[in-house]
Amino acid sequence: MLRLCVRLVRRPLLPAVRLWRRNIQLRVVAATLLISLSVVLALGFVVIAQVSKGLLDAKEEAAQSQAAGGFAVAQEKANTPATVDGPDATDNKVGRDASTWMNSLVKQLASGGQTAFEVAALGAGTGEQPQPGAQGVRGARASGNVDPTASVPISLRRAVNHATGTFKTFSEIRYTSGADQKEPEPALVVGKRLTDINGDPYDLYYLFPLTQEEESLNLVKSTIATAGLFVVVLLSGIAWLVVRQVVSPVRMAAGIAERLSAGRLQERMKVTGEDDIARLGEAFNKMAQNLQNKIQQLEELSRMQRRFVSDVSHELRTPLTTVRMAADVIHDARVDFDPVTARSAELLAGQLDRFESLLADLLEISRFDAGAAALEAEPIDLREVVRRVIDGAEPLAEHKGTRIRVLGDSQPVIAEADSRRVERVLRNLVVNAVEHGEGRDVVVRLASAGGAVAVAVRDYGVGLKPGEATRVFNRFWRADPARARTTGGTGLGLSIAVEDARLHGGWLQAWGEPGGGSQFRLTLPRTADEPLRGSPIPLEPEDSRANRARAAADAAAASDTGAQRPAVEAGDRSPIPPRSPVAGAQSVPADPTALPGNGARVVARPAEQAQQEDRADGR
What proportion of the chain, given as a percentage, has pLDDT over 70? Predict the structure, then answer.
């Protein structure tokens, strides 16, 4: 379930991840965007913090100055002596109690604020337990519909009640309920303990709204955000333009390189200016020009070589025909010659046969080189092709003392292929296996699975040394130059065979180990033009040394646990254990090196092991 969830999450993200990996311009612009955004955010936080601190410091200084003046005026009014008449009769202590005087004081102090501040008066001990013997103002009073009890924090009231001096704190001004009730707003509250006209203590508070400071700070924030966004977008645009000037020539070079690799050798980069990019373009164009010249020279040389081979092959046909006719006459009359001359006539006839085969192979190779080889594909049963090949190789097998076995022919193995070319490939493989098998059995295995069919030819002769399996398909290559050719081969058989396999869209691969024989595998698509994804027959046979060693180890492990499994003798070279029916075979994954002429594996054996196996075989 976890893997399923991960797949479901990753699937929609794969296009974006692929674009991120392949587009360097996107990565540079994104990195510039993130870095500039981080710088703008850090700078914005610093500026906002400094501006906020400056505004609050200025507000605190002005508020303390204003509150100090108000506290002095209030205490002066409380200490003014009583008078009977005069212009200050409204502030006279005569005929007024402390409550009325307090209301008048709050109203008078708040009248000078003009909404710049509000004034609130609270009795001593308000919000706490009343002190014993405490007298004076007991009710809370405030200007501007301010709720004094909710607007003055408890902590500030406690500080004012328990100490002398002026105290301040930040809080919110809350208003009493009404039709025009205002929303709470931040404020700076300054308070001090004073005495009223009767000498009783009370607390006087100034509440300074911070609305203007908050608006100023919001204006600074919006300005910084707008400017920061503009800067980020501008830097991203600049990065995109700058990177585009560098990436565009690189992309152009990559596209031209792809077209050059596709064979369009006339492609060139457009070069403007004299900077480093222009120098890169000039160097790229020079490289492409030199590459085109070299390829053209090689093509011309190859064309001349192919034409030479084709012309020579055709021109040799006429004199070869004449020589053949004369050689046949001499060969037919050899009974009248002396023994030396008769033997010379036989050798002449045999070498002419080989010369004709070589000439035919050269013509076929020239057709492949010129791209003139045509495939005449039709549905065929590979079992019939294998039977014809074995029937033709039986005389050579009897002469060598070799038995040819066929496995997997119980069911039809149908494929769309050129019967003539497939038969030529298999004839070459079987004849080579018989010739190099040293009298041991040769096993031909057929199988089909999925969209592929395969024929493997296994021998148990000298095998292949390390590195030889990749060269065995080269023209005129021989594993042992001193070895005589019993069948008079031309050295072009496997080269033509691998070209036939390629023409079918198939694989021809080799595996071998020194002294352990070799196996050649031909894999063809079941349907013409269908790409191959695997082969129904493994390239390394089941009876190879590595597989036998693993089987022996498994048998030993099974015997330790009480299981009964047949052991495999180290020196047993009797071919091929039984296989499961081909119809139930499962398609195997494609070999990573499964290319025509490649994917070959050669297993080296140590010298001591080789000597032991040779002694076990009686050699």
Answer: 79
Token reading at 226? 């707008």
273-311 pLDDT, tens digit each: 777 778 888 888 888 888 888 888 887 877 777 777 667
Question: Which residue in 500, 491, 494 sits closest to 600, CA to CA?
Answer: 494
Q: What is the pTM of this model?
A: 0.46
- The count of residues in the chain is 619
Between CA 62 and CA 243 the distance in angstroms is 54
Rounded to whole angstroms, the maximal C-alpha distance in the chain is 179
How far is 267 from 158, CA to CA, in rounded Å?
A: 88
481-to-350, 476, 492, 548 alpha-carbon distances in Å: 20, 10, 15, 32
- Specify which residues 442 forms β-bridges with: 404
Nearest to 616 by CA among 572, 563, 583, 578: 572
Would you give the DSSP letter of residue 450?
Answer: T
Query: Could you read off the pLDDT of 357-391 as tens digits, one per residue?
Result: 777 766 666 666 666 567 788 898 989 999 999 98
Instruction: Specify whether the CB–CB gap between 207 and 172 falls below 8 A.
Output: no
| CA 532, 534, 535, 540 torsion-angle sign | positive
Question: Mean per-residue pLDDT for 446-475?
Answer: 84
Question: Considering only 72-81, 173-182, 269-278, 296-305, which range has the smallest mean pLDDT?
Answer: 173-182
* Cα distance between residue 110 and residue 284, in whole Å: 85
Contact 437, 459 (CB under 8 A): yes
Q: Which of 407, 406, 400, 462 is nearest to 431 (CA)?
A: 400
Residue 126's CB: how many other CB atoms inside 10 A? 21
CB-CB contact of 119 with 109 (8 Å) = yes
Q: Is 476 left (phi over 0), alpha (psi -120 to 50) or beta?
A: left
DSSP structure class, residue 81? P
